[in-house]
Amino acid sequence: MKKIAVAENMYPSIGEFDRMSVKEFREVYQTLENEDLMLDVTVDICGRLLSKRIAGKKLVFLVVAEGDHQMQIKCMAGNIDHDVLEEIRLLRRGDIIRATGHPHRTQRGELSLMTQNIRMLTPCLHELVDFNAISDIEIKHRQRYLDLMVNKGVRDRFVARAKIIKNLRDFLNDRDFVEVETPLLHSGPSGASADPFTTHYNSLNKNVYLRIAPELYLKKLIIGGMDRVYEIGKSFRNEGIDHTHNPEFTTCEFYQAYADYNKVMEMTEEMIKYIAVNTIGTFIITLNKGKENEYEIDFSKPFKRISVVQEIEDKVGKSIDFNIDTPENIKYIKTICIENNIPFDDEDNLMDLFDVLVSHYIEPYCKEPTFLKDYPVISSPLAKNHRNNPGLVERFELIINGMEICNAYSEMNDPFLQANNFDIQNAGNKDQATIIEENNYVRALEYGLPPTGGWGMGIDRLCMLLLGINSIREVILFPTLKQREIVIDK
């Protein structure tokens, strides 16, 4: 470090020059034969120094990386000035350098750059750990730059994530959907049942909320005549953190006029198959790879469909009405849980108990893609009542590997029923801001929302699934973590 510190201008400005990427260099000059040296071609390469091997007083070999691509730099006395060769000896692993030289293949067949000059662009002031040596989860997530730098495959994972999102966009754009942007700051929490993050507008002297979901804004666009819209972006829920939940997460929601949940179900199956084959090149994914419980999921097969309330009743052998929110009915359902050794909290309400039964009897057994459909009315205040089954709504969730991937329904478009559903939901718990937000939406419904199918998906979870990852933190570049103080040595 002290030797490097005396070097003149360790952080130079580089100006303009024609830089060739490491990937391009390997592709362009792959046909060079052993001991070939192209003196008539001069190439500039930039990258991070991964290793240095000193082979005597007159020869130094460097390996540099750019992204996931690596190449060798050959530094030989006679081709470069003695002073430059001495500076090369001071370079440390992790430094970012620029090398100028001629394409060359060594006697042993290694494609290389025979160097004329090397210049440090940025020093690395910390000792760089060995390849694939970072296994500490805290370091991987807090210092993602190190994870990307030294752990093989991390960059590929996030490139694949970008590809998943691109394929999702392509699927919707090809079907004449229009991508839109709606506000992240809402006057009141709305669009889903969850605890919001709160912030404050100084100029307006009012509290506002980070969005839980963009749903109400997107349906207002359908009312306005934009018949097919979608949005990909961040939503926020001030709730727990675990292997499938992060408070800040990426979603896609789309809404299509003159469609219902059956149509959206068909689209969802087509979409998942399209994204899978265009991202990973196959309909088959392998989960828990290399472990005893390794298994495959084949997206080419038809997705299963299960009526969720009927399935619960079949499992417990009793009829249950999840829409009677009375102490007697809640006690009846808790008794069923006790009889079947199903754990629950004493404070659980009617919807909590419904979720408990779904989580116990259905979701863990949905390894293959499975649509759970036809939910109780009380569970979905924004969904349209079922056309054939009173007490149910036209809603489905797609469950794969026991994990919810997306949620969709035929949208409630009756303003009177919608207003009543809002009143029933969280009765006595609404603040004035939420009431205003919901009343604004009901006012929009009064102008006429055509029959509409709506759909939302967690992109982070889809990435987990397609890439065979078990933790949501591994598919988010900078996941939410407890703050830790960093002391900077100045």
Task: Give an overview of the whole structure.
A hairpin with a 4-residue loop joins strand 1 and strand 2. This protein has 14 helices and 18 strands. The longest helix is centred in the middle third of the chain and has 20 residues. By secondary structure, the protein is an alpha+beta fold. The two termini are 14 Å apart. It is 30% helix and 26% strand. The N terminus is likely disordered. The radius of gyration is 29 Å and the shape is elongated. The strands form four sheets. It has an eight-stranded mixed sheet with strand order 6-10-11-18-17-16-15-14, sandwiched between helices. The chain has a five-stranded mixed β-barrel with strand order 1-2-3-5-4. A three-stranded antiparallel sheet has the order 7-9-8, with no helix packed on it.
β-sheet strand percentage: 25-35%
Could you say which structural class the secondary elements and strand pairing correspond to?
alpha+beta
Number of helices: 14
Report the uncertain regions. 1-6
The average pLDDT score comes to 91
| Overall body shape | elongated
Which helices and strands occur, and which strands form pairs?
Layout: H1 2-5, H2 22-28, E1 43-54, E2 59-66, E3 69-76, H3 82-90, E4 96-105, E5 111-122, H4 137-142, H5 144-150, H6 154-173, E6 178-179, E7 185-186, E8 198-201, E9 206-210, H7 215-223, E10 228-236, E11 248-257, H8 261-279, E12 284-287, E13 295-298, E14 304-307, H9 308-316, H10 327-339, H11 350-361, E15 370-376, E16 392-400, E17 403-410, H12 415-424, H13 432-445, E18 452-458, H14 459-467
Helix pairs in contact: 6-8, 6-14, 12-13
